[in-house]
Amino acid sequence: MTLTDLTLAIGGLGLLLLGMQLLTDGLKAAAGSHLQTFLERSTQTRMRAALSGFTVTALVQSSSAVVVALLGFTNAGMLKLREAAWVVFGSNVGTTMTAWIVALIGLKLNIGVFAWPLIGFGMLIQLVRKNSVAGNVGTAIAGFGVLFVGLDTLRDAFEQVVTVLPVEQLQVTGVAGVLVAVAAGALLTALVQSSSAALAIVLTASVSGVFSPLAGAAVVIGANIGTTITALLASVGATAHAKRLAAVHVLMNSVTGAVALVLLVPLWWVAELLSGGEQVTNISSGLAVFHTLFNVLGLALMWLLDNRIFRQVERWYRLPPLRSGEPRFLDKTVLQIPAMGLGAAQQELNRVLRQYIMRLRALLRDDAVNTDTEEDIATGELLGHIKVYLNLLSEKQLHGDEALKLAELHNSYARLIDLRDIVEKLRAAKPEYIDASLNHDMRNQLLELLSGADMKDRSEASWSALLSSIRATRNLLRHTWLTNIAANELSPTEGAALFQLASLWERSAEIIAALKA
């Protein structure tokens, strides 16, 4: 093997990874917010969620990209853990499309006939229709062509690699040999950060005789386990939602890998039988079948074990308490797609609102005997996190509805700052003044407005009617206090304090109605 062969191998690997990156980025950009809409509508059942994961991954050609996007969707509250997990399970099966494309097209046909035209045609579309859906599709088409050119180059390089190996094939003998092959597959995937690219490399190497059948199968198992590295890295420093989904992904692939290792020989026998038997001249088709069997096995195992896994990861990673200042939804994963970031920020703003609603209820029920401000500090920390993320979202290029949504979030944030100031003033007031500022009707009207059970389904007309009742009661109280001041039954200072508290109650009701209606 000469220096030219070595550089050819490195160049082929680079072209393969570049093609995968262009294909994935182009299709992700073309899909835009449609990916979110598609997943929200197609995850109502386990089977539908798995089919949607299969479909998206088969198109995007990267389960890692899909899983990272799902981390953001789960964080933003757009998908529940169970829904996102089943999309991940289907996504694993979707990666089999890469193996079949490589085995049936990339390694069997004259690549130059269609790969080079794809690159030229795709880049022409990208240049003519730049910054559009068509332009992004053009990037994906060009990436598809580059991927196949990389495969062809890598195959030529592997043919030279075989001539310098100390043995004709890398054989797998015994448990130790199988485990070494699995570790090699996991390491390869961790290095290239794509199980699809790792599988393409393994299948290409198999054509040149680098791997024996069982060695290739063991490397495939390792590649599937190694693909969880991307999700794990993306979940570092993320919220409990992201860590839960990453843990589910790791457990699913690890359990499937362990079972597949126990059944390695019979699984390969079935794969060999389905791909044409022992007379097949190369093992690429057999490995594609084996990879498919592996992921279908994983889907079947999850059908039996999913609830146990979900309960386990929920025990491992608990969500911060409602009154905590730690974000539940905001982390780096939600900033990748603006729609996710907007949804996550809305969820956190809703948390702040619920915290202040709870404190207002406590004041109305005389439950707030503790004047400690620790809860206010925690909510202040959460508002600080929200402000940072809103500023980061403002730096993104938002258009149309997304820009309008961000403006609404900034407005909601400002209202919550006002509500925080109101709650702090009410909690700082003397208990006797709080009681005096509320008659029976006012207290009940405010408690009805703050009733969490009714808020979700309350119509805009009902909100308006409640606010009108509160204003009318406050005006009646104000008239009573003015009369008492005139009759020297209430001091002007005390009257002014009651006027202010009544105004604060009314203003808090207006803010909550504006945020919930």
From TrEMBL:
<keyword id="KW-1003">Cell membrane</keyword>
<feature type="transmembrane region" description="Helical">
    <location>
        <begin position="250"/>
        <end position="271"/>
    </location>
</feature>
<feature type="transmembrane region" description="Helical">
    <location>
        <begin position="85"/>
        <end position="105"/>
    </location>
</feature>
<dbReference type="GO" id="GO:0005886">
    <property type="term" value="C:plasma membrane"/>
</dbReference>
<dbReference type="GO" id="GO:0005436">
    <property type="term" value="F:sodium:phosphate symporter activity"/>
</dbReference>
<feature type="transmembrane region" description="Helical">
    <location>
        <begin position="111"/>
        <end position="128"/>
    </location>
</feature>
<feature type="transmembrane region" description="Helical">
    <location>
        <begin position="197"/>
        <end position="215"/>
    </location>
</feature>
<feature type="transmembrane region" description="Helical">
    <location>
        <begin position="171"/>
        <end position="190"/>
    </location>
</feature>
<keyword id="KW-0472">Membrane</keyword>
<feature type="transmembrane region" description="Helical">
    <location>
        <begin position="133"/>
        <end position="151"/>
    </location>
</feature>
<protein>
    <submittedName>
        <fullName>Na/Pi cotransporter family protein</fullName>
    </submittedName>
</protein>
<feature type="transmembrane region" description="Helical">
    <location>
        <begin position="283"/>
        <end position="305"/>
    </location>
</feature>
<keyword id="KW-1133">Transmembrane helix</keyword>
<keyword id="KW-0812">Transmembrane</keyword>
<dbReference type="GO" id="GO:0044341">
    <property type="term" value="P:sodium-dependent phosphate transport"/>
</dbReference>
<feature type="transmembrane region" description="Helical">
    <location>
        <begin position="221"/>
        <end position="238"/>
    </location>
</feature>
<dbReference type="Pfam" id="PF02690">
    <property type="entry name" value="Na_Pi_cotrans"/>
</dbReference>
<dbReference type="InterPro" id="IPR003841">
    <property type="entry name" value="Na/Pi_transpt"/>
</dbReference>
<feature type="transmembrane region" description="Helical">
    <location>
        <begin position="50"/>
        <end position="73"/>
    </location>
</feature>
